[in-house]
Amino acid sequence: MPSSTTAHASHRLLLRAAAARAQRRYRGAADRLSDASGFSSPAGLHRRPWLARLRRALESGEFVLHYQPIVSLRDGRVSHYEALVRLADEPHGRLVAPGSFLPAAERYGLVRDIDRLVLGRVASLLAEGPGQRGPTVAINVSTLSATDGRMLTHIERALARRGVDPSRLIVEVTETAAISDMRRARAFCEGVQALGCAVALDDFGSGFGSFQYLKHLPFDFLKIDGDFIRGLPDSPTDQLVVKALVDVVGGMGRQTIAEFVGDATTLRMLREYGVDYAQGYEVGRPAPRMPVPA
Questions:
Q1: Chain mean position to CA 187
Q2: Once rounded to an integer, what is the mean pLDDT over residues 139-154?
Q3: Strands (E), the chain
Q4: SS3 (DSSP) at 140
Q5: What pTM did the predictor assign?
Q6: Is residue 104 in a domain?
Q7: How many domains would you assign to the chain?
Q8: What's 155's domain CATH number?
């Protein structure tokens, strides 16, 4: 286990990095996606009547899933995939990134329905796979769902109804859920693990009390926030934070995943630091289908 001095120093690093990074985060994930990525630009989309648009999308199946691989840095093999939800933008024939519509879905109370839709589709996909040899998939659960006791029941029923091995599902929970209601978020994570699924703490480092969540939330994977990864080669602070996280999380017997890995230099540094897995364009782009072993 890392010493208390190491953890305390790491905590101070995260606090400083979070403060310097706060303004950048509010640009939203969608703003970081170029037209070349195949997404519709968020410009002007905020003026649409989102409530009606989202309800129609839920009723008519306009949400689509893409799957991005998470790759082991030990052997280069795909460990699992993350299911990423998109919204079909019919007039332009493109996809709308989640950063454009999820805030509206949360505002109008529809994000739970999106979470359940994604859960159902992923469970059905896993049921089509070849038993325990099939892929493992991670799904994102919103703060509203993670602090709502009904979501745990939905997960249990979705897997049982389709005969899916729970170990093939990973549930990603963000720090925001812990900030919103630590007690309920902890109970949710414990319940997910009791079902036999794994828990990943997503966007870790995005908040000011990050290390507190390591102490109170049960988890199997920690996903290092992309703001620590994008500029890693040129940022001594990011390098120190990533090294500290690897030390602390590894000492706890858990594993780390680096998000937004976009170049070979960053990938090499992460491997040298001892990060367990990588996710990003350098190791694999999201795709509408994922390879399924025969």
A1: 19
A2: 94
A3: 39-40, 63-72, 78-89, 94-96, 137-141, 169-174, 198-204, 221-224, 255-258, 277-278
A4: strand
A5: 0.85
A6: yes
A7: 1
A8: 3.20.20.450
